[in-house]
Write a structure and sequence with these properties.
By secondary structure, the protein is mostly helical. The chain contains nine helices and two strands; from the N terminus they run αααααββαααα.
Amino acid sequence: MPGPGRQFKKNYNKKERPIIDENNPVLKAFQSYAIELDAKHDRYERIVKMSRDITIESKRIIFLLHSIDIRKNNKQKVLEEAQTRLEKVINQNFKAIAEELHGYDPYQFRGAYSPGLQEFIEAYTFMEYTKYVENEENTSEGEMIDWIELQKKMTYPSSSLEEGKGDDEAGGGSKDTSFFVDPTEYILGVSDLTGELMRRCINSLGSGETDTCLSCCKVLQKFFTGYISLNVHRCRELSRKIYTMRQSVLKAENVCYNVKVRGGEAAKWGAMFDSKSIADDIDEGFF
């Protein structure tokens, strides 16, 4: 038989289960908070996955646009495919995020969709630059999209709402839903466009499109002049992107300098410069 000391220890370690009152208002309040937080976290994760799909597709479209080569005469075909795929992203991927955010504050989930939105803006503006600005078409349609026009494209009819979601809000069922395009996100996305213009400048040198090199460099200089005039003391991300933009401007200016100095031999030098610049380039996007 166990000694008295061991018996005392056994009884001492034995804990009685506390009696929980299920009707306690504090307990009910915290249970409702837990349900609300779990729903918010689940929605956040779903938006992150949707944003990741947008990022991947946008990067693929950017890669497609870089395949334009005057020697292959494939510009029109590539632009049509790129625009079709971008419109599909708007009508499917961003529409799904808009449905998730319907009735919620979009700034609560900004970190979830910000990478995809910036990458999409970079791809869309790069497509429009290649389609309009590079050709210098002074028409009513030959302008790069701004954030207000992009917001209009991302506005969807009320029929796109999920069943029952609009019925909980008074008068909300008849309203259209839209994906909120934050002007700050638009500025950050356009700043990433300069990296693609730098690559376009270098690739054009290899294909003998020296005029494209010069036009890309001029646009880069204008972008950089405009961005350095912004007050970026409170936005570390924009400050970092402006630093990367400066590197892109210097690389493009170096290309144009060699075009002017070396003339017809600049293309041979461009192949060496291209391999060096890609190795040292800083990716301003998201992984």
